[in-house]
Design a protein that fits this description.
heterodimer, A: Arc Repressor Mutant, subunit A, 12 strands, B: 454 residues, alpha+beta, Heat Shock Protein 90, five-stranded antiparallel beta sheet, five-stranded mixed beta sheet, 9 helices, rod-shaped
């Protein structure tokens, strides 16, 4: 395991990746929460605009054209989901992360997830929030590629085979899905909750730590005893797949 | 006089009025029938007499006329003979009534007696007949009798109806006051219940009467509520306890870190411990909210056809590595392709919880098996394990929130797993059956309703 400081889990200042600051609009009525999120995102090189009200937030979203938005569900003025629906009607496709104290997974929230947006229940860990924002910003492009490659690791989506260099790797179907998801999002921090939702399609958090057990197996297969590790465990946060430099 | 506005009293008063009207109409009808009958009888008598008298020879006529009037003690008979100019020749009639034509039918006329005054000349049913030499014979009968009958009828009516009407009103008032008193009594007791005295009950008698039945129903409901609320209070204590433990740990870690830590690493270690404690509390809150969400939802809108065999294999597939790590063998026994109506996510969650539990409590080298069976009119999802199982006395309490058998206190987990499974089963109308040990055996029993394959 490589010790990576949680503060730099995403691999440096991801916010300023293209010589341009990534703009994030935060619409959240609780000042203290907003301050914490803003500080955390600013540390990671994001440019953060904050609005504490639904209507004002909607106006700012139109003016600023942010790269991503973080929206609280219950807001004064106009509720968060309505803000998003209004923007979508205007063909604004900015990815949104919805924050809510309501855990209820109702139909509107299902709709959000289908539309490529994300939903996070309060209270949350800051690492989780940042990981999800990064995932939204770096949505993998739709490719017709039938082979995925990260460093020496290669995954054949048609043959359902994997190999690292010349070494073949035998994977069970679910392990294959897990590795595929990780390879599409290499160099990104993937939290346990994200993996549960995307790979296992779980809408709940099981009592036993499923992800760790499955990940342990995949890691054992991918990182052989003589290989430099590719799958890294970030303590208290999640996992990263990274090519050996 | 509040009872006058009460519904019971109004109904009673209304019915009494209706009854009185009905009786009055009945008496009126009887009166008119009798009146008709008496008039017809008088008419027949008058006609018979006039026919008889007119057929007598003149000398016998006078005699018969006097005879007849002489026998009339009640003074109801009228008779007279008049000449062509209307002068009275015999009889007790003062003068010939102008509107009585000879040789027509019987009709009602006012007819004065010789000894009476014109003013109170009574109404008489009379008939006139022409005799020889232009004379006219008049025979009449007083029908004032019928008025007397009407007086008797009216008197009887008043005598019977008035007390009856009063009785009805009194009965109405009594019933109404009685009902009102009972409502008042119920209201007083309900106020006490609202104020928090849950042991209070509504008054009811042992007789089969709507009011008592209602009270018995409400009392039954109150019993149920009291039990639930007491149980909730217990749950509140359990929650407080289970939340406090990790929070206390977090607080201690923070406090010790603040006082004793001399390096960043030590501080971070303290913070990590604190975060772990807080996360534990949060997971309890999350589990509770989820339970409440399922218990309160009627998510039948998300119901579809769920293939259970495939779901079983999926759960097995997910938990296989975990079981292997614990050196527990996990396998699917009997399966079939069976469908039920339900929410796939929730059913998966329930089954995953059961398997999770089974693996957790099964010792090394033990065995957990899933099976899908078709019973009689039902489908059974069964999870068996070779763990300690659930003892007879624990079967009830295991469904209580936060219950964890004392010997398992040190096994990680929130202790709401079976509650959640039970809530999900209930939402679907399925049954959760926990069999007694040794060895764990838990079943979700679904009624085998025909499901359209789609």
């Amino acid at each position: 395991m490589v010790a990576i400081k949680p503060g730099h889990a995403g691999g440096g200042n991801v916010g300023s990746r293209d010589n341009r600051m990534t703009k994030v609009l935060l619409i959240e009525d609780d000042g203290e929460t907003a301050e914490e999120i803003t500080a955390e995102l600013a540390d990671r090189g994001f440019e953060v605009a904050w609005s504490s009200d639904g209507l004002d937030g909607l106006a700012q979203a139109r003016d600023l054209r942010p790269d991503a938005m973080i929206v609280d569900r219950l807001l004064p003025g106009m509720d968060g989901l309505t803000v998003i629906e209004s923007l979508r009607k205007e063909q604004v496709r900015t990815p949104v992360l919805v924050l809510s104290a309501l855990g209820a997974v109702d139909d509107r929230v299902r709709g959000l997830r289908m539309g490529g947006d994300d939903y996070l229940t309060k209270p949350f860990a800051v690492v989780e929030l940042v990981a999800r924002i990064e995932a939204l910003l770096r949505r993998p492009p739709e490719t017709r590629e039938t082979k995925l490659r990260v460093g020496q690791l290669e995954l054949d989506l048609i043959e359902r085979t994997a190999k690292r260099g010349e070494r073949k790797i035998d994977l069970l179907p679910r392990e294959f899905r897990l590795l595929e998801y990780m390879m599409r999002r290499s160099d990104q921090l993937l939290t346990r909750a994200m993996l549960l939702e995307e790979v296992w399609n779980y809408k709940f958090v099981p009592a036993t730590n499923l992800v760790d057990v499955h990940m342990g197996r995949v890691r054992h297969k991918v990182d052989g005893p003589d290989d430099a590790p590719m799958i890294h465990n970030v303590r208290g946060a999640g996992f990263i797949l990274r090519a050996v430099s | 006089m509040q009872f006058i506005r009460s519904n019971t009293f109004r109904w009673a008063a209304g019915l009494a009025t209706l009854f009185a009207a009905f009786v009055t109409i009945l008496f009126g009808l009887i009166y008119f029938k009798i009146d008709d009958y008496l008039i017809a009888r008088s008419d027949r008598m008058v006609t018979t007499q006039v026919d008889f008298l007119a057929s007598l020879p003149p000398d016998r006529l006078m005699e018969a006329l006097d005879d007849r009037l002489g026998q009339d003690s009640r003074g109801v008979h009228f008779a007279g003979i008049f000449d062509t100019r209307g002068n009275r020749l015999a009889g007790n009639v003062a003068r010939l009534p102008a509107d009585l034509a000879a040789n027509t039918g019987v009709k009602s006329v006012r007819m004065a007696r010789l000894d009476g005054r014109d003013a109170d000349a009574p109404w008489v049913r009379a008939v006139a007949r022409s005799l020889d030499q232009g004379r006219v014979l008049v025979i009449g009968r007083n029908v004032d009798e019928t008025r007397e009958i009407s007086r008797v009828v009216g008197g009887a009516l008043a005598l019977g109806l008035l007390p009856a009407f009063c009785f009805w009103l009194l009965a109405g008032a009594w019933l109404s006051i009685r009902a009102q008193n009972r409502v008042e009594e119920v209201n007083r007791r309900v106020q006490r219940i609202v104020a928090g005295d849950l042991r209070e009950r509504l008054p009811h008698r042992e007789i089969d009467e709507p009011f008592s039945r209602l009270a018995a129903i409400v009392n039954g409901m109150l019993d149920e509520l009291e039990t639930t609320i007491n149980a909730l209070a217990g749950v509140g204590n359990d929650i407080a306890h289970d939340l406090r433990t990790p929070l206390t740990r977090a607080r201690l870690a923070l406090e010790r870190g603040r006082t004793n830590a001399t390096s960043l690493e030590q501080l971070q270690e303290a913070a990590d411990k604190a975060i772990a404690g807080i996360d534990q509390s949060l997971s309890i809150v999350t589990a509770l909210l989820r339970l409440a969400e399922i218990e309160n939802s009627r998510r039948s809108s998300a119901f579809g056809n769920v293939e259970l065999g495939e779901m079983l294999r999926e759960v097995c597939d997910i938990y296989e590595p975990i079981a292997e790590d614990k050196q527990v063998s996990l396998g699917v026994g009997a399966t079939a392709t069976l469908y039920v109506r339900g929410d796939r996510d929730l059913l998966l969650e329930a089954l995953a919880n059961l398997v999770d539990n089974a693996i957790k409590f099964t010792p090394h080298h033990g065995k957990v098996e899933l099976a899908l069976l078709r019973g009689e009119g039902e489908i059974i999802l069964r999870v068996t394990d070779t763990g300690p199982g659930i003892s007879e006395q624990d079967r009830e309490v295991v469904l209580r929130r936060f219950y964890r058998s004392d010997k398992n206190r040190n096994t990680p987990g929130v202790g709401l797993g079976l509650n959640l499974v039970s809530a999900i089963a209930k939402l679907h109308g399925f049954r959760l059956i926990i069999h007694a040990g040794p060895g764990g055996r838990v079943e979700i029993v679904c009624p085998d309703a025909p499901v359209s394959r789609g």
